[in-house]
Write a structure and sequence with these properties.
Strands 3-2-1-4-5-7-6 form a 7-stranded mixed sheet, with helices on both faces. The protein has one domain: Vaccinia Virus protein VP39 (Rossmann fold, 3-Layer(aba) Sandwich), CATH 3.40.50.150. Helices cover 43% and strands 11% of the residues. Helix 1 packs across helix 3 (71-85) and helix 10 packs across helix 12. It is globular and about 50 Å long. The chain has helices at residues 2-22, 45-49, 71-85, 102-109, 111-120, 126-148, 164-167, 183-195, 216-221, 244-257, 276-288, 302-312, 322-330, and strands spanning 153-157, 176-181, 205-208, 232-235, 263-268, 314-321, 344-350.
């Protein structure tokens, strides 16, 4: 469990260290955020899943092999332990534990085991995980606002082990959830949902898309998704692993599928100045773990990212940072949990 926990955060550290020590000068002081423009605030489970009982063999996922999703396992583990062991969870992800493998579930539930892991670690990995938790909460808040405004379709790009549909039965009667991801990732997720004890709030509409041979438009066309009606979209924790060209191509396609009134929430890896505290933290992290997993491929300045969105046919509505996450979600906490690393999150709509 600890290996996946560490590897899931190391990719972030690697990208930051590489960009800061090779491309930008160091800066001292507290968190430094770039000047930014804020426009405005704006049947059975088996049948539903489309799975068969008695699945044989292993599932090969794009982000891992066999019964594990590699670094994605570490991400869902972080959400699970945060929900189970931290007071007043920022994201109360009660379904995260259900998507873990059986051995990891036992370890995640064991408060003493988790306490020992934290005490034995030379640095606090939660400071990076808090960025992920806060970012997902940011996205979920926007989805809730859209649902309250009468939007009834939610598309999750690169959904992985996202749990919104599974735990948010309170919106199941008015918000249809569509999850887009690789077929093998979805196969493993379906298998774990089927084995889970709780009844899911809703089963999302799974849209298996092999992005090498199929477009998002083609995948959605095979469902009851209505591009003539507004939808809210999310694309979280994926853009850093794509080239700039792939990101722009995807967002151009998404923009063409967005009816007036639609929204998309996404995050990206910002090419921004680091404080000395952030540099020291990442250096310590780099001494403890080795590089592994899928490498990050893109860093954007905030200005370049907004310009790219404009070219895609999108307008920036909100552009938030880790400082905003801390103000909204972590202020006043007594457990030391806060978003320590740079975060860049955007809410956008069609032009």
């Amino acid at each position: 469990m600890r290996a996946s926990f560490i590897s899931s955060v190391f990719e972030v550290a690697t990208a930051f260290l590489r960009s800061k020590f090779e491309e930008e000068p160091r800066t001292r002081g507290s968190i430094i955020a770039p000047r930014r423009r804020r426009v405005a605030k704006a049947g059975s489970i088996s049948e539903a899943l489309g799975t068969r009982s008695g699945i044989e063999g292993t599932v090969m996922a794009k982000t891992g092999e066999g019964e594990s999703l590699g670094t994605a396992e570490g991400a869902v583990l972080g959400r699970a332990t945060h929900t189970l062991h931290d007071e007043k969870p920022v994201l109360n992800d009660t379904w995260a534990i259900e998507l873990l493998g059986p051995t990891t579930q036992v370890e995640a539930r064991d408060a003493e085991h988790q306490r020992r892991l934290r005490e034995d670690s030379a640095i606090d990995f939660r400071l990076i995980l808090a960025v992920g938790i806060g970012s997902l909460r940011y996205a979920e808040d926007e989805v809730d606002r859209c649902a309250a405004d009468g939007i009834h379709q939610y598309v999750v790009l690169g959904a992985g082990f996202d749990t919104f549909a599974l735990r948010r039965g309170d919106v199941a009667d008015r918000l249809r959830v569509y999850e887009v991801d690789f077929p093998d990732v979805q196969a493993l997720k379906r298998k774990r949902i089927e084995k889970a004890k709780p009844q899911p709030g809703q089963i999302p509409t799974f849209i298996p898309v092999d992005f090498e041979t199929m477009s998002i438009s083609q995948g959605l066309a095979a469902t009851d998704f209505d591009p003539a009606r507004p939808a809210v979209w999310s694309w979280m924790n994926t853009i850093p692993y794509l080239t700039n060209e792939a990101t722009e191509t995807t967002l151009t396609e998404v923009a063409r599928l967005m009816a007036p009134g639609s929204r998309i929430v996404l995050n990206y890896q910002g090419k921004v100045a680091l404080s000395q505290a952030q540099i020291d933290y990442l250096q310590s992290l780099g001494e403890l773990v080795r590089e592994g997993g899928e490498p990050m491929k893109s860093l954007w300045t905030p200005e370049d990212f907004e310009s790219m969105l404009t070219r895609c046919g999108l307008r920036t509505i909100d552009h938030s940072t880790e400082s905003d996450l801390n103000e909204r979600y972590f202020e006043g906490r007594k457990d030391g949990l806060y978003a320590a690393m740079p975060a860049r999150l955007i809410t956008a709509g069609p032009t």
